[in-house]
Design goal:
Layout: E1 2-3, E2 6-8, H1 23-37, E3 42-45, H2 52-60, E4 64-66, E5 69-73
Parallel strand pairs: 2-3
Antiparallel strand pairs: 1-2, 3-5, 4-5
């Protein structure tokens, strides 16, 4: 989604029966690859602090926390 602040990744998730199999990392990598192809330089997302699996995935993929949001330069 594009907003006045930039591009946001909205409603990204993996349904329970497909978690823990690397699907989140795979799909997030595909999204980041496509974003680069479209010339997007920065992508934001929001995640609840208690969603440790998602937070860890985003950190491992290169996102950095900025004022309760995460961003990645791609």
């Amino acid at each position: 989604m594009k907003s006045s602040e930039g591009y946001y990744l909205i409603n990204f998730g993996v349904i329970p029966e497909y978690r823990g199999q690397g699907n989140g990392k795979f799909f997030l990598n595909e999204i980041l690859t496509k974003a680069k192809e479209y010339g997007i330089k920065e992508l934001f997302l929001k995640v609840e602090n208690d969603n440790t699996r998602a937070v860890n995935l985003y950190y491992n993929m290169g996102f950095e926390e900025i004022i309760n949001a995460a961003t990645i330069l791609i």
